[in-house]
Every structure is written in structure tokens, then in C-alpha cells.
UniProtKB/TrEMBL annotation:
GO MF assignments: carboxypeptidase activity
InterPro entries found in the cross-reference section: Peptidase_M14
Keyword Cytoplasm recorded: no
Keywords recorded for this protein, A-Z: Carboxypeptidase, Hydrolase, Protease
Superkingdom of origin organism: Bacteria
Domain Peptidase M14: 21-128
Keyword Hydrolase carried by entry: yes
Name of this protein: Zinc carboxypeptidase
Length: 367
């Protein structure tokens, strides 16, 4: 197998966290005619929901991204995948002939435009699999029924709070083979999901060792992944997480891209059974031990602050003038973990750290 160099395929013109169809339509329209783009439905506000189909093989894979409108990292990775599949490479050619792939780049265009998790009716589409109360939910169900996929990829982002197991490493990518029943038993489809995740994990461990986690598998029939697993379709939840100092998630997108390519190569080459359920279960479950900033040794007398040994700060993501601002907020844990990790640690005994805190309006927040 030839080595796949991300730099040859990354769509660097589209970056950052705020991604709508306004940002990606020009790229979609520039794809070769062998990529079939169509409108598969409309959002609450009437915006077009599009799909792209490519490949002519018997193995059918359905993917959708931005079901939650503010989770755009996997959308960027999907564009990178389109670019990879449009180039002249033997690996892409073989996938093209083995697979037919249908991708909805943005399922929730209203939520994407507002940079919110929910849709314009304030409904979480990933809790609407049974009620099908929203037009976007009905679109996905119809696409699923019409396309009859052999595999489904449910593409999401996760918060910066997640670490791998109990380690200090961030969960840069997490996966889940969703449950299909309350007891979280294994069905043939769930087993295949686990094996395919194990394949992707084997690749990512070469790239980001110790930074792959396993998402909570509590059963919820209202979640789309669980619902499709109940129908017997192997379904995988992808969660794009945090990489050091990568709040735009333009590093994490690289690892999602590489995971997607590995999954397609594994399906193409009938290698899923080379991987085991135990390899999937060996991926540590996600912890919730991270905060964005940890401020240590706050000095009331010198800095005008309330004295505290440690103060956790978490960013709130706010859309402002077409860009996402990261607004620091004092974080309150629902249940404080035994140990807290910080993506950035700052010590008020250090003049440079105090300067950074002041310049970023955090001293004002803590006073």
C-alpha cells in the first residue's frame, strides 16, 4: 500500500471552526463530474441539504457531518477525503472500484449558520431518531432507506474536556460502536463496527499514540447511531477532539481524514476480520478531566484576586462577526474528578504568565 501524504490532499483554503455551505459550496461545485452532488432535502429554514456520491463499487458507505451545527471538524476532513478521491492515485482508484460512498457534508445547515448544536426549532437532531419530528431527521432517514448502506459513519466533534482513560493525554479522536439494546450486547453489526474501529485505531496509534479514546456506550434509541445499529447496519460514531493548542481543529481534521482513509482501505480489502472486538475494547474510555486553562497560585495581595490554589477556566465558543471567539469562563464541575488536567497551565508566580492572563482578560474574570 502506498503511503498517503495528507499535505497532498488537505483543502487548506477551508479552515477554522465556522463552516457553512457558504464556505464549502465553491469547493463542492469544483469537484469532477464523477462526483454526483444533489439536494436531498431542506432544513427548517429552507436551506438546501446536499449529498455527494462517488465510487461505483458494491460496498456502500453512508456518512453525515454537522448533525450538530457547531461540530465542523469532520466536515473539513470530508472535504479532504473528496480531494483525495478526486486525485490520480492507485489507492483512491481501488476504493472507487470497491465502494460507493454517499456523504452529507452538513446535515444541519441552520445550526451550522447559527453555530449551535441544535437546529432552528431548537431540537437536537441526534435525539430525534424515533420521533423524526424535524425535516433534517426525515432527510437522513430517507437517504438511509434509499441508499441501503452497508456501513454508516456518524461524524461529530467532542469538547476539550475529554482525556483518554485516566491519563493526561487529550482524546484527540474518539470512537464508539453504538449499542443496539439496553444491555449493550454485541450483535453482528456492532461487532463489525468494533472491528473497523480497531483498524482505524491501529493507524492512529502510529500518529497520535495514547490520544484515542472510546466514547460512552450508554444505549439511547433516540440517538441515530443506536437506531441504525438496531436496524442491523454497522454504525460508527466519530468524535473529533482536542490536539494541543489546536482550537481551530485544523490538526485534528488530519487525523479524522487518516482514520476515514484507513476505514475505506480496510473495507475495500476485506480486512475487517483481521481486527478483533478485544482490540476495540482495549481502547480506554474517555475521562472528563481536562479544562482549557488551569490558573495556579492566584495572589490576592499582588494581583487583586480572590486567593485560590487552583482555578479551572473553560472557553465558551461564541460566534462573532463570522468567526468563533473563545471566551474564558470559570468552570464548575458537575462532579470534580480526582485529578484535573489543563491544556494550558499558568502560574501567577510567573510574571510572563500573569501578563498573558491580563492580556487575555482572565485576571479581570477572576477578580
Amino acid at each position: 500500500m502506498e503511503e498517503i501524504n495528507y499535505k497532498d490532499y488537505g483543502v487548506t483554503s477551508i479552515s477554522g471552526r465556522y463552516i457553512t455551505y457558504d464556505h464549502i459550496d465553491e469547493f463542492l461545485n469544483s469537484l469532477p463530474v464523477t462526483f454526483k452532488t444533489e439536494v436531498v432535502g431542506r432544513s427548517v429554514r429552507g436551506e438546501a441539504i446536499k449529498s455527494v456520491v462517488f465510487g461505483n463499487g458494491p460496498k456502500r458507505i453512508l456518512m453525515w457531518s454537522q448533525m450538530h451545527g457547531n461540530e465542523s471538524t469532520t466536515t473539513k476532513a470530508v472535504l479532504d477525503l473528496f480531494n483525495f478521491m478526486s486525485q490520480e492515485s492507485m489507492e483512491a482508484f481501488k476504493i472507487w472500484n470497491a465502494c460507493t460512498i454517499k456523504i452529507i457534508p452538513i446535515l444541519n445547515p441552520d445550526g451550522a449558520r447559527d453555530f449551535t448544536r441544535i437546529n432552528a426549532n431548537e431540537i437536537d437532531l441526534n435525539r430525534d431518531a424515533q420521533n423524526l419530528s424535524q425535516p433534517e431527521s426525515k432527510v437522513l432517514k430517507k437517504v438511509y432507506e434509499d441508499f441501503t448502506p452497508d456501513f454508516c459513519f456518524n461524524l461529530h466533534d467532542q469538547r476539550t474536556i475529554f482525556n483518554v482513560g485516566t491519563t493526561h493525554k487529550p482524546a484527540t479522536v474518539s470512537f464508539l460502536a453504538p449499542a443496539f439494546d439496553e444491555d449493550r450486547n454485541n450483535s453482528p453489526s456492532r461487532k463489525l463496527s468494533m472491528q473497523l474501529i480497531a483498524a482505524m485505531n491501529s493507524k492512529l496509534q502510529e500518529e497520535i499514540p495514547g490520544q484515542v479514546g472510546r466514547y460512552d456506550d450508554g444505549f439511547n434509541a433516540n440517538c441515530v447511531g443506536d437506531a441504525f445499529q438496531m436496524k442491523g447496519t454497522p454504525t460508527i460514531l466519530f468524535e473529533a477532539g482536542h490536539y494541543y493548542n489546536d482550537y481551530d481543529r485544523d490538526v485534528t481534521r488530519v487525523y479524522i481524514f487518516k482514520a476515514l482513509v484507513k476505514s475505506l482501505l480496510t473495507i475495500r480489502d476485506n480486512e475487517i476480520t483481521d481486527y478483533t472486538v478485544d482490540q476495540y475494547l482495549s481502547i480506554p474510555e474517555n475521562g472528563k478531566q481536562f479544562v482549557d486553562i488551569g490558573v495556579y497560585n492566584i495572589d490576592f495581595e499582588n494581583n487583586g484576586l480572590t486567593s485560590a490554589e487552583f482555578t479551572p477556566i473553560q472557553y465558551k465558543e461564541v460566534l462573532k462577526n463570522g468567526k468563533v471567539d473563545f471566551v474564558p469562563m470559570v468552570h464548575v464541575f458537575d462532579k470534580e474528578p480526582p485529578e484535573v488536567f489543563a491544556h494550558k497551565s499558568l502560574n501567577c508566580n510567573d510574571e510572563n504568565d500573569v501578563k498573558w492572563l491580563r492580556e487575555n482578560d482572565i485576571l479581570k474574570l477572576l477578580s
